[in-house]
Amino acid sequence: MADVTFTLDGSTVTGRRGQTILQVMQAHQRNVPNLCNDPRLDPYGGCRTCVVEVEGSPRPVPACATPIAEGMVVRSESGPVEDYRKTLVELLMMEHLGGEGDGVGHDDLALLARDYDVEPLFELPSHRRPYKDRNEFIGLDADNCILCNRCVRYCEEVMLCSALTLTGKGPGGHIQPTRGESFLDTDCELCGGCVSTCPTGALYDKRALGTQDTQVAKTTTTCTYCGVGCQLDLHVEDNKIVKVGTRIGAPVSEGNLCVKGRFAFDFVDHPDRLKMPLVRNDAGELVEASWDDALDRVAEGLNGVRERHGSQKLAFLTSSRCTNEENYLLQKLARGVMGTNSVHSCAAT
């Protein structure tokens, strides 16, 4: 695409035709508040916290939904724009009533309110019904919702499903599972993507209740559930995983996770987790062994079957947790060493 040159806060910057003002600002490390924007989603322009002045425009425009144009002049730090944003944050905080999910997830609106040193002008009474869902993973606190619609859009645009919907009018407007049913009664896959995109903590990880997101240690690692290799952020408190997340734009999956990667981490501390290889002794009991002893036992068994019955009586099956490289090595072992083409992965990779 052709480059577009324009003026941003007195500096000449360049972007690609079709980019929005916000995309170019972020590419040039120019910070601007935004709540309804997620780079994985189509521009929405709902919260208006990213408004900027564009010379010739009669009113401020949302940077997230305004495409750049050749020669345009943009001001993102003027006094009127800052006053406008501050008022918007005050108004949004009136809908941010707090509740069960407070502190569990990130709260970008609370951070904005702190940065602008504002409190809600007054507290609106809640007109949203309390929501309880029988699923074990995703909680919904309607009183923290600011109706930015990111969760609904994420479901539709990224997951291609309709698990969430925006319903009601005025103060009674709220997000809920489609038709008001449980997440389990919709086509929701419980991937938790709605939790990751929510900017206020209205959608939260139930299993992390009782923890404070700002007080846990975070370690970046790679998911071991399959060969895709999604990047994870482990939230650890008292040497125990309390929540799994990932950042938007993280390698491989762009910040999207499946239900296993986000919620199925109990195996880490499970008492039945295997930490050493097990082999059967003469009495047929499973006992711990070294890796060398276990691999010798495997080789002995495979060679014994091949000698007694031939290579075609052997078959190899790899775990879905294996990488593509590990799957490749196993099929080389099966075909090149043991002489059989009966090799498969339960992930069908």
Description:
The chain has 349 residues and is an alpha+beta fold. It has four domains: 3-77, Ubiquitin-like (UB roll), CATH 3.10.20; 96-214, Alpha-Beta Plaits; 216-272, ADC-like domains (N-terminal domain of TfIIb), CATH 2.20.25; 278-345, no CATH class. It contains eight helices and 16 strands. Helix 2 (79-95) crosses helix 3. The chain is elongated. The relative contact order is 0.09.
Strand order, main sheet: write it out: 2-1-5-3-4
Total beta strands = 16
The third-level CATH topology of the largest domain is Alpha-Beta Plaits
Quickly count the domains. 4
User: Which architecture of the largest domain would the CATH scheme give at its second level?
Assistant: 2-Layer Sandwich
| Secondary-structure element order, N to C | EEHEEEHHEHEEHEEEEHEEHEHE
| Mean of residue pLDDT values | 89
- Tell me about the largest β-sheet: 5 strands, mixed
Number of helices: 8
* Unreliable segments of 5+ consecutive residues: none
Look at the helices and sheets and give the structural class: alpha+beta
- Compute the separation of the termini in Å: 35 Å
What is the beta-strand fraction?
A: 15-25%
**What's the level 1 CATH class of the largest domain?**
Alpha Beta
Proportion of helical residues:
10-25%
Bulk shape? elongated
